[in-house]
Structures are given as C-alpha cells and as structure tokens.
Design a protein that fits this description.
The complex is a heterodimer of chains A (about 525) and B (about 350).
Chain A lengths: L8 H26 L5 H40 E2 L3 H7 L8 H12 L4 H27 L1 H9 L4 H30 L2 H5 L5 H10 L4 H27 L15 E2 L2 H33 L6 H29 L2 H16 L2 H16 L9 H30 L2 H9 L4 H30 L2 H6 L7 H10 L3 H30 L8 H6 L6
Parallel strand pairs in A: 1-2
Chain B lengths: L5 E10 L2 E11 L4 E5 L6 H9 L6 E6 L2 E5 L2 E2 L7 E4 L11 H6 L8 H11 L15 H13 L5 E5 L7 H18 L2 E5 L3 H7 L2 E6 L2 E6 L1 H6 L4 H6 L4 E8 L2 E2 L6 E2 L4 E7 L4 E5 L5 E7 L4 E8 L11 E7 L9 E6 L5 E4 L1
Parallel strand pairs in B: 3-9, 3-10, 7-8, 8-9
Antiparallel strand pairs in B: 1-2, 1-4, 4-5, 5-6, 10-11, 12-13, 12-15, 13-14, 15-21, 16-20, 17-18, 17-20, 18-19
Helix pairs in contact in B: 3-4, 4-5
Classes of the chains: A mainly alpha (about 525), B alpha+beta (about 350).
Chain lengths: ~525, ~350
C-alpha cells in the first residue's frame, strides 16, 4: 500500500524534464544518423571494422578477465583463511576509485607500452571490483547454508567452489561482468590515451577531426548497439538470480591453508590490488613529486570540478526525487527503463546527442560553443541524463524507509505536514540522500568525455586538465589532478567497503550488490 | 449510543469497485476496551483507519465526542484529533531513541521528557530510554509504541494487530502489560485482531465484521453463545456445520431431531467442544482419526447410513477430554451439550 503519487504540476514538470533528459540526446543522435554524412564512405571502408572489432574484443576479453580476477579473489577472501585476509577484503574493492583513463596514464608512462593489450590490462585492473563486490556478496550471504550442507556431505573447498558457490553466484557475476562491459564501451579516456581506436574514440574523432556530425552519430548508433546487448545480458542475469538463502550476513568457517598455499593466496590477491591501485597510484605519486608543485591552473581546475559536481549533483538529485515522487507502479517501471537508458549511454554518445539537440533547438548549425550559464545548465542536464539512474537506487531505498505507517504514526501524535517532513521523513531518508549525493558528485568529478566536449569556456575540470596534460605527454603535470580525482573517489569507496565489513559483522545486512555497483557507475 | 468517544455511522469506503466498508456502524464507549474481529478482508483495518482519520470516507460519518470529524469530502486530519495509534509494525522512528519516540507527541510541553520517562516506566522500560528501536526486542518495541501512543493522553487509542508478529510466549505477557497500561490510563481502546481467542480474552466488548459491515456487537460471551449468523459464528472459531431440511419446526441431525422453529433448508452448527462421543456399537459414526497431545484431543468421526439417513458421509470434529476419548475405529453416538446446537436459515 504505497501512497498515491503526488500530482502537483511543478513536480510533474520536473519529473517530465528528468525523464526527457536521458531520451532527448538518444533521439537527437538517431535523427542525426539519418542525415547525409560526407565522410561515411571513407569511414565505412577503412574505419568501421577496426572500431567495432577493437570495441567488441575489449568488451569480451576485458569483462572475462575482470570476471576471473573478481570471482577468484572474492572466493579466496570469503572461503579461505590466510594472513592478511582481513586487509584484502577491503583493499580488493579500492581500485573502484581509479578511473580507467588515470590508470592508463600511469601504466602507459611506466611501461612505455600502449595498444590494445595495455588497454585490456587497464580495464581488467580497474573494473574487476564490480565483479569482486557482487561475487563476494553472493558467496557470503546467499549460499552459506548450501555451502555448509556441501561441507557436511564431504565436499572439499575446491569442489564446493565449483559445484555450489559458483553456480549459485553465477547470475550476480554475469550481471557484474555486463556492467564491466558497459564501462568499457563507455570509456573514452583510456582508449584514446593508449591509441586504441574504439567506437567511443571514433565518435569523437569523426566529430572533432572530420567535423562530420552525421558520421559520428552513425558510429554512436553502433556503440549503442553493443550497449543494448550488454543491458539485455544484465537484465537477463537478474531474472536468473537465485532468491532466498539467508538474508543475514553470516560468516562461514574458512578453510585454513598450509604455508605454501597461503603464500599463493596472498600473492593471488595482491595482483589485482597492485595492478589496479598500488602501482598506478605509486607511479603517479612519484611523477607528482618529481614535478614539484601542481601546475598553475590547478586551483581553478579544482574549483571548476567542485562547482560542476555540486551543480550537476543538485540538478540530478532534484530531478530524481521528482521522478520518484511522481511515479508509481507501471509509471515507475517505465521511468526505471528511461533512467537505465541514460546510465547505459556512453558519455561520448551522450555528448554528441546533447550537441545535436542544442544545435537543433538553437537553430545554429554545427557545434556552436555553449557559453556562460546556458552552457553550465546544459552540462548539468547532461550529467543528470547520465546519473539519475545512479541516484535513483539509493534515493528510492531511503524513501522506502520513511514508510506510510511512520507518517501515520507522526500524524496521530499531532505532527502536521511540515513536522512530519522535517522531524520524521527527512531525517529517516537523509543518509540515503547523502549517499546518492556522494555517488553523483564522485561520478561527475571522474567523468571525462561529456565534460570535455560540453564544458563552458573556462571550466577546465581536473579530469579535463589531466587528459590534456597526458595527451601532451606531460605526465608529471597530469599526476596532480589525477591524484586529486582519486582522493575524491576514495571517500565513497572506503565508506562502502566499511559498510560491507560492518554488515558482515551481523547487525544489518542492507548493503546490496546493486548499491555496491551503483557507487562506481560510469567511470568513463 | 450517547456519549461515545468515537463513533462510525454508516461508514462506506471503496477501493475501486470494491467496498471495503459498506455502511459499518460502531461506537466506542468511554473507558471500554473493544475489539474488531472478522475474517481477513472483512474491513476491520479499514474501519480502524477510517476512525483514526487516516483514510477518507466515501459515505457515512465519523464522530469524536459527538462532533463530525470525517464525512465524504471532508476530514479533520489525524494530527488535529486526539486519537492514539499502535501499528502492526510498531512504526517507531528509527532515528530517535526510545525516550524521544515517546516524547514525540508531547512537543511543546515543558515536562515532555519527564512525562515520557514516566510512561516508559509504566510499560517497564525505564532502563531502555536511551536505546534506539533496532536495539530493542520485538516485545520492547511494542511497549515503546504503546507508551508513545498513550503519552499525549488521547481520547481513545486504536491498535492494529498489536500482538501479531511476536513470539507466542511473549504475547500473553504483553497482553497483560498492555491491558494494565490501558486501564491505568483510563483510555478507551479499540483493537483489531485476526486472533479471535486473543480478542475474546482481552476485550470488554467485541464487534464482528463481515463483508464491510459490523454484523454483531456484544460481550465476548454473548457473541460467542448467540451469534446472529453463520458467518459470525464462523468468525468466532472452529465450528461444525450440517445441512438439513426442516419440516413442521423439526429437523433431523446427527444428534437426533432438533427443534428449529422454522421450515425449509437450514444449517445446524455446533462448536467442537460442545460435542460428546458416547461409545455405542449401534452408533451412526465411526472414529477415523485422533490428533493432538495433552488433555484435549481432536477427534474426527464420519457418519454412515444407520438410523438417520442424513448422517451418511457427514464429517464431525469434536474436542474431547482425554479420559473420554474413544478408540480409533470405534462406533460412537454423538451427543450435543444442551442448547449448543445453533440453527440458521439457509
């Protein structure tokens, strides 16, 4: 018995804007793709095949590699006992805070190696935590009883993993691997820096170098095709999810390892943490130290990032709240699909769509530079298009905590609408609002392609600066903004992992793998 | 009823095409503890919510001390009434400790915290004042919810399934605490329960609901012994029924001829505890199954065509004290306690 949806017209208007915002760029891209493209013949003959091949190869191999690393490390920390296990539980999630493009700068500079193999390493090293978190939740929470039954039937740790834990966790793992694939399709910065011509890179090149918006839009449609397959895969894996098991977090007795095996486990768990966190961050720190003080303009970039992140998050949260307040039932289901479409749209495609839409609306031909507050508003709406989906889940969970009977109880105790809102509903939902805010702020601080293309004059954010310096091979100068982005992104990552650890202690098992994934949504 | 604290007159509430309340009447007298019982979907909770002002009315009216507080299209909001509520899920504010929960409705009073402490003491939770809801057991949460509802000294308090979802061994103790607190406060109370036994034990007066109407009100004993309809009788607990044809004011039954006072098709009903089974080689019933432990056993018997043709295939369930329980497979003759057979037309 949920309360009826609210029907005030300003609220409906906001909800309408919130739902239109993810769709408008998609429609604009589709229409633009129908326009004549002067360079399409050339693109079709020479570029399309490599774009598609490298994208598909990276998506398949990258998500497989991340899937293996994430699943094995999750199994090790949840089923085996070895020195340092407690530290690894926590450390294995931290590479979530490293955007792939920043890891690409560090690894590229450190090894001098570029190309598709380096891109594969970078994606697997920074994106495996999606799989790790989902698999670990599945291993610890869901299959405890079945695992104990298998143990009682004489199955050793390896057999328990292969025949019980893995099949039960498979839907969660496949879903997380699909998310990894979405991140890879969406990435622009790492692929561009490592010289891999993916569809995302192709969209930007066709637009900026060839000036062919229609050709770029056609490539964007190809990228959306890959995206659609991954979204379908993710949705299908959810349907296969095994419900039930115990909802409480419980720890099973972990299998103690012999000394050589323990060393092996420690080494195995170290590899992803080293590749995804310690080596890239360590190298960036060395570079930053060699470089000395940050470049001039660092302060402005920090301010630009903070202003954009706060403005974007405010717009995103207001629109998300309006959507949630105005929809119920089938309306909510339709809204979810729309918000998911925005989240799944690669940043480059979104940026292109926004350019096409604003050009059409303002009547100007091509990409007229957006200036001042109008440009800021367009960018904030673009962020909202991308991240209403990320904000919706924690916000919805928070609003659900403010149940009808809590409101009724407050009313029966004499609290009018204002006191009900300020003394009950808001404080009950506030932690979730804060979590949603944090997630969106971090996502925007990390976001590269849409910011790069749509930013108003003078808004060179940390991400944009880092990318420009890295493109000029000034890695020392890139290290400062890159490390600052990581520092910002570490905050929610640590909060999340602390909550997972706390939940496992037994009190309130509320952290879902969905929320876990939500924290890292869309690190382009 | 004059001087009612809270009264529903002809209350109608529709959800889509369905009428959850179809003209229900009920009045809560000062100081009494009343219970609404009835099968699920009969409108108990809706009547409670309508009387609390949480749900609007589509017809009829609700009066508080003779003043109309709800009518179609107009409703005094719950926060401007003096009605306390205890919810099935307790609805404690998760961000406030026990004391602040109880003090919530005392806002603006100088002695709010002292009063809240007193009420917490009354339900035996003075030591848990600083505990947050998630740190309290289910029973403790229920008592905090009760103290919170009583603290503003409402005209009446409405309780929706207040004991369901609690461990059975806690229920009896909690019922006692709740009743004692209600009596101390002198507050009128109306509780909704799907547990008839509980309602009959706790309430001064029960109202039986059926298909959106209050079918009967009265003392627990009166309603139990003299139900006005078969559905009321069913709502009050397990009952055996037999279809029969009455002619000239008499009908055949497994217990012999019964005076019905009417003619045509009738339904005869009797409580399992009012049935005795006398061992009798010529009896019309055979014991098929005996269930249960302890002093009372549930005995199933089936009738066959000997003597009364109406008895053939009739199934009968009786609650029998242990010394009188027949052997399985034994032939028995059922007897009814005097006045226990109830007759309903149709």
């Amino acid at each position: 018995m949920s309360p009826p949806p609210l029907r005030h017209w300003p609220l409906l208007l906001l909800a309408g804007v919130g739902l239109a915002v993810p769709l408008v760029p998609l429609v604009a891209v589709a229409l633009m793709a129908l326009a004549p493209s002067p360079d399409w013949g050339h693109i079709l003959a020479t570029m399309l095949a490599p774009y598609v091949t490298s994208t598909v190869l990276l998506v398949v191999a990258g998500s497989l590699l991340a899937g293996i690393a994430g699943t094995l490390s999750a199994w090790a920390v949840s089923a085996l006992a070895f020195p340092g296990r407690g530290l690894f539980v926590w450390a294995l999630a931290l590479p979530l805070a490293i955007p792939p493009y920043i890891a690409a700068y560090a690894w590229g500079d450190l090894t001098g190696v570029r190309g598709i193999w380096m891109a594969l390493l970078v994606y697997a090293a920074t994106l495996y935590p999606y799989v790790y978190l989902a698999a670990q939740a599945a291993f610890t929470a869901r299959s405890v009883c079945a695992l104990e039954a298998a143990q009682a039937l004489g199955a050793g740790p390896v057999r328990r993993f292969a025949t019980v834990a893995l099949p039960m966790a498979r839907p969660a793992i496949v879903g997380a691997m699909a998310l990894v694939g979405l991140e890879i399709v969406s990435d622009y910065g790492a692929a561009d820096h490592l010289g891999v011509a993916t569809l995302s890179v192709g969209v930007i090149r066709t637009w900026s170098s060839l000036g062919d918006m229609a050709g770029a839009a056609r490539l964007a449609v190809c990228a959306l095709g890959v995206t659609l397959v991954l979204v379908w895969l993710e949705a299908a894996s959810r349907r296969g999810a095994i419900a039930g098991g115990s909802s409480r977090w419980r720890s099973t007795a972990r299998t103690p390892l012999s000394a050589p095996m323990a060393v092996l486990a420690m080494a195995g768990c170290s590899v992803p943490v080293l590749a995804g966190l310690v080596i890239p961050v360590g190298h960036l720190v060395v570079l930053a130290a060699d470089n000395g003080m940050p470049q001039r303009g660092f302060g402005e970039a920090l301010v630009a990032s903070v202003v954009l992140a706060l403005a974007g998050a405010a717009v995103t949260l207001v629109l998300t709240a309006a959507i949630l307040a105005a929809t119920r039932g089938t309306g909510r289901a339709a809204a979810r699909i729309t918000m998911l479409a925005g989240y799944a749209t690669p940043g480059t495609v979104l940026a292109l769509g926004v350019l096409a839409a604003t050009a059409a609306l303002s009547g100007a031909g091509g990409a007229a530079a957006l200036t001042g507050s109008a440009g800021l508003a367009v960018l904030a709406l673009a962020y909202a298009a991308r991240f209403v989906g990320a904000a919706a889940e924690p916000l919805e969970a928070g609003l659900q905590r403010a149940t009808r009977s809590l409101r009724d109880a407050a009313a029966s105790l004499g609290a009018g609408p204002w006191r009900r809102f300020s003394a009950v509903e808001l404080p009950v939902a506030l932690p979730a609002v804060f979590a949603a805010m944090l997630i969106v702020v971090v996502e925007i601080a990390k976001e590269l392609p849409a910011t790069m293309i749509l930013r108003p004059f003078g808004f060179d954010t940390l991400a944009v600066r880092a990318h420009q310096y890295a493109a000029d091979e000034r890695l020392g100068a890139a290290a400062w903004p890159a490390l600052t982005i990581i520092a910002i992104a570490l905050v929610p990552t640590i909060l999340l992992t602390a909550r997972l650890a706390g939940a496992r202690a037994g009190a309130q098992g509320q952290a879902s793998d969905g929320q876990a994934a939500g924290l890292a949504v869309g690190s382009s | 009823m004059g001087g009612a604290i809270l009264e529903a007159r002809g209350a109608v509430r529709r959800f889509g095409a369905q009428a959850a309340l179809a003209g229900a009447d009920f009045a809560l007298a000062p100081g009494e503890i009343a219970a609404l019982i009835g099968p699920s979907g009969s409108g108990k909770s809706t009547l409670l919510r309508v009387m609390a002002g949480l749900e609007p009315l589509d017809g009829g009216e609700v009066l508080e001390r003779g003043q109309v507080v709800s009518a179609p299209g107009r409703r005094v909001p719950p926060e401007r009434r003096r009605i306390g509520l205890v919810f099935q899920d307790f609805a404690l504010f998760p961000h406030l400790d026990a004391l602040s929960n109880v003090a919530f409705g005392l806002k603006g009073r100088a002695d709010a915290r002292a009063q809240a402490t007193r009420w917490l003491g009354l339900v035996g939770l003075a030591a848990k004042a600083q505990a947050y809801p998630h740190q309290l057991s289910g029973g403790e949460q229920q008592r905090v919810a009760l103290a919170r509802a009583l603290a503003p000294e409402p005209a009446a308090i409405l309780l929706d399934e207040p004991f369901s979802g609690l461990d059975p061994y806690l229920r009896g103790e909690l019922q006692e605490t709740t009743l004692a607190a209600l009596r101390t406060a002198g507050t009128s109370a109306l509780l909704v329960s799907h547990d008839t036994e509980e309602a009959l034990a706790v309430a001064d007066r029960v109202a039986v609901m059926d298909r959106g109407l209050v079918a009967q009100t009265g003392s627990p004993q009166d309603v139990h012994d003299h139900p006005v309809s078969l559905s009321v009788a069913r709502a009050l607990g397990p009952i055996c029924t037999f279809a029969a044809q009455a002619a000239a004011g008499l009908a055949d039954s497994p217990f012999g001829p019964v005076s019905t006072g009417l003619s045509g098709p009738v339904t005869l009903a009797i409580r399992p505890e009012a049935i005795g089974l006398v061992p009798d080689a010529g009896g019309a019933f055979t014991v098929t199954d005996i269930r249960g432990v302890g002093l009372h056993r549930t005995v199933h018997a089936v009738g066959h065509a000997v003597g009364h043709t109406e008895g053939a295939g009739v199934k009968l369930v009786a609650f029998i004290d242990l010394p009188l329980v027949p052997e399985p497979g034994a032939r028995v003759r059922p007897v009814a306690a005097p006045g226990a057979l109830q007759v309903f037309a149709g």
